[in-house]
């Protein structure tokens, strides 16, 4: 079905992220997992199958890619679109319309199909994916999981023979990943050929039959899933892979926690026009520990984060820190959020300027020390936008430390990261423990187990569970349900 | 939550209202002849906003509009002069003229779906080269707002605000990250649209039905009056 013949590619803008001498054949109805560390070339392969390379992303390409005897490399993109459907990583930038129904119709409309046919296709997709309640709604008001469902549905209405997905689970909660898994299962049953590039592997173990691992643009192994599941952890680590038998338990790290000097959050409640997003009367949190905030989409995690950072308009609650009552305004001074899209918070022309922006007085010695601790010394004169994602994150953290913030909140710091980079983030957060109170909003069990010392699980705006190491009763439920396990 | 869009109107009607309101309320075309129609026209956007259940926006708009008109007319009645009068004239005049147009524009953006808009433009035979960029704009506005919001929060956390230490660089700090983010999103968006077959040679279909209904005829009737008055004025 899909054939790579001696394919090599170099992006014209940068030297890295190229692929070399790829020869692959993927059979009809096969489900293939592409894995490997960040920048290994898996996204490049996906872009070759859907034709974005070489038609949209420019570079030097050798060899050719065939899908069902059609030469993707020379064929126009809109012809490829009939055969290959694509789902991307970022749910917010892959829909073209504002409302969900038009979005589903968008693909078939481009094909010039008759109106009745399009309506029938939408109806069939809505029925089979069970998304009736998402229809006729503004996509801007949807959660990440729902947006990703709409993205899948709009691929489904085109009825392609091949579906490619590029890190589709990066921004999803564990619950939303389950839904995505169902969709893929349905596609596979319908006989479609599926290619998924992913970092999180566990959810694909019963879907994909074949695993292709890339490293520095070359295929390092290509084996059936059965064999891949027999590999040892070390083999996974060697290529920067996360475990296929991912441990979904969110058990924090075993550490001695002092509850002597707690931060007390009082009246952490907030409602939007129609519903209560957050409703916490009183919550005690140990100071200078790492607290993971977990829970499904829409549980109130982001509302909670905004409240604690003092960003919520009209928020009436307060925190008692060292006996002092901090309301919205003081919280804004005391806390800092490292956003999921770090690009939002980098303003200056050099890293040095950036990290000293919020400082009350210049203190070069201290700046250099912090930069050194975070491994940023050699980048001090670089433009922050020229750094990699992880480095940008460190710059944001450095500026928080230097502006003497007491509370640092990370908003999904590991979404879309491979094993190495996830561990680096965990190291960074561990470094902060003991001097800052750190909140980590995350869906990533690996990260929780590596750096959190306490877990707060939110559900419907209330604390459903709060535990430290050993406190949580593992009640031996099925793995899928493990993460929502309540005490 | 379903989209709450108030009275369903053809996008072409909405465009006609927008053009009419801007021509007569903002541009002041027709002078004496149409002056009596202007307040009626100015009320149209607020009524439409009310039907779309944007009560707060409509109410604030009406109060501002009525307030500025009253203030201006009372200032005129008292034969005021000097600096204060010019201040009132300037502020209220601007507000009174711009507000209805802005409200109408907002109503148009909020109540029209991209596909309705495209369908309507197709019906008046506008070329695809104009329709596609315009429809992308519809999609892009909310995105830019979202991004700007996050950047605003990030700035607050860094203590960058008016009156703060870095107030001179406010605009730079706001715009630079905004542009970076919009460029990224724009690129991803185009990639996604291309993989779904946008730009093909076949004629696009549109499942969206647009057409004129009772409410459209009423609105058109209201809009036509000042135009006729204007033409009569010119011919005379």
Automatic annotation (TrEMBL), chain A:
The keyword Repeat applies. PROSITE patterns: ABC_TRANSPORTER_1, ABC_TRANSPORTER_2. One of its GO terms (molecular function) is ATPase-coupled transmembrane transporter activity. One of its GO terms (cellular component) is ATP-binding cassette (ABC) transporter complex. Residues 2-241, 263-485 form the ABC transporter domain. SMART domains: AAA. Belongs to the ABC transporter superfamily. This is Energy-coupling factor transport system ATP-binding protein. It comes from Butyrivibrio hungatei DSM 14810.
Automatic annotation (TrEMBL), chain B:
It holds the Pfam family CbiQ. Coiled coil: none annotated. The keyword Transmembrane helix applies. The keyword Membrane applies. It is a multi-pass membrane protein. One of its GO terms (cellular component) is plasma membrane. Keywords: Cell membrane, Membrane, Transmembrane, Transmembrane helix. The chain crosses the membrane at residues 55-72, 84-108, 217-235. InterPro entries: ABC/ECF_trnsptr_transmembrane, ECF_transporter_component. It is found in: Membrane. This is Energy-coupling factor transport system permease protein. It comes from Butyrivibrio hungatei DSM 14810.
